[in-house]
Specification:
The structure is a single chain. The chain is an alpha+beta fold and 202 residues long. It folds into two domains: 87 residues, 2-Layer Sandwich (Beta-Lactamase); 94 residues, Beta-Lactamase (2-Layer Sandwich), CATH 3.30.450. 38% of the residues lie in helices and 30% in strands. A five-stranded antiparallel sheet has the order 5-4-8-7-6, with helices on one face. Strands 1-2-3 form a three-stranded antiparallel sheet, sandwiched between helices.
Length: 202
């Protein structure tokens, strides 16, 4: 290795000096489960002279687990292949992705097991995106008859002509309550909330 940024000490907890040992010390901090993949990726890039990419876990000398992403350009210089690249700390991004996946899993479990009938719709496209099992059971409407259709093709609640004013209320107030759906066998009421920009949960 011919160069190591001095910020390596702040980011990875590794002193870039002495330069002769910094790669060995860095590689030793790659998580055990990722070390073989790390070294294989470097050897393959060097052999093929193709760009190098790697993403994995890094254990700092103090024991902190970080996620790193490395990219470099492999090029031939004299009689050897050299790599010119950068290794980034992507811990925040990876943890945000993990938190999002966990949040989505919790929402999915709550959505599908909820005893209340729920339908999710996109305010912008005015399409139904999803319904839960309870909604199918309560209304008698099947999921495959609802999802992907527009509110005006299939008006589940109220008079179709009431939707413009109802949507405006939802946008302005963030919620709608007691919009009735009447059928021959049952009377149902809509309580809608705007959970994310452009999406309403009914």
């Amino acid at each position: 290795m011919s160069f190591a940024d001095k910020r390596a000490l702040d980011i990875f907890g590794l002193d870039p000096e002495p330069l002769e040992t910094v790669f060995k010390r860095f590689a030793a901090c790659i998580a055990l489960e990722d070390q073989e993949r790390f070294m294989t990726s470097i050897r393959e890039s060097t052999r093929s002279q193709k760009d190098w990419e790697f993403e994995g876990r890094f254990i700092t000398p103090t024991g902190e687990t970080k996620y790193i992403q490395g990219v470099s350009r492999a090029r031939r210089l004299a009689n050897e292949t050299v790599h010119d690249g950068i290794i980034l700390d992507v811990t925040h991004h990876k943890r945000a992705e993990q938190a999002l996946r966990e949040s989505e899993a919790k929402f999915s479990k709550s959505f599908h097991s909820n005893p209340a009938g729920i339908v999710i719709a996109d305010i912008t496209s005015q399409l139904y995106l999803e319904v839960n099992e309870a909604f199918e059971r309560i209304t008698g409407d099947r999921r495959d008859e609802i999802v992907g259709r527009s509110w005006f093709q299939l008006c589940l609640f109220g008079d179709p002509h009431e939707w413009d004013s109802a949507l405006q209320r939802l946008l302005n107030e963030g919620r709608i309550r007691n919009l009735a759906r009447l059928s021959e066998t049952q009377g149902l009421f809509l309580h809608a909330t705007r959970s994310t920009p452009g999406v309403g949960a009914l």
